[in-house]
Amino acid sequence: MTPSVADVRRAVRESFERHEVVSNDLVLVACSGGPDSMALAAGLAFEGPKLGLRIGAVIVDHGIQEITATVSQETRVQLETLGFDPVRIVRVAVGSEGGLEAAARSARYEAIDEVAAELDAKYVLLGHTRDDQAETVLLGLARGSGARSLSGMAELTGRYLRPMLGITRETTVQACQDGDLKVWLDPHNTEERFARVRVRERVLPLLEEQLGPGIAEALARTADQLREDDEVLDQLAEHAYHQLVKAGPTSLTAEAKALAELQPAIRYRVIRLAGTTLGGHLHRSHVLEIDRLLTNWHGQKPLAVPSIRVERIGENIVFKSAKTLKPGAC
Questions:
Q1: Which helix (H) or strand (E) holds 142?
Q2: pTM to 2 decimal places
Q3: Fold for the domain defined by 245-320
């Protein structure tokens, strides 16, 4: 067993220790056939049976490139040889909304969700590495997306588990070589028309050159710290939301003065949560517009923001929607 193989196996084992699994749980790995997901699959194939887990895999064929059908079949054979059962290949149709990257990601997760729900999987393992985390943080910084985006990817999101966020891409490539695993190098991962590829191929190397080594590790560490802070703020905001916001069939109402007295970081989250509850998706510009109804009220007209209408009625702020409230929203 080489150091790279040991690192991947350890990452899988320690992730399972942090997030309880019990014997006979089904754990899936989402595998593209690339080095990251193949290294992860090999780590799961070694650690899973030791814990009495059932291990399966999902291969998503986006159908964007002709070769992917062949790659999917070859990956399936390799995974079955490693002991995975079941191994599902799902072919998806990729649209164009939000660009090719975003559309492919949405189609991929939708397909994985369906298989995981059908099989009642405890977790789905994803092969994101420390390098992916650093890229995510830089992309979030460029978009001005705030702490939530800069906090990157969490190790656990729903049933999605990312054991290798502390592992470098170099380690996964070496682990595949050491384990004699056949991998597919997706040519899209080197096409600079994609923003993530430009960050990977140009921005991070430039930062390493100009600022010294360890940039990816520092960005990943920053993401961890921001995520810790963001989780606390979200908890405080959720508590405030349930204390102050009252739900009607198609609206939410809160006393404007009580909301205005909250600290901005909490108040903005409460506003965003109200929008989400009604099916809207508020960007920061929308949140700040709504906030002025609380903190700079001078008779403004009602605001129409995505999927909702917000207005100041006397001493109250009212969020309205044509849709019914999500169950358990308040």
A1: helix 130-143
A2: 0.81
A3: 3.30.465
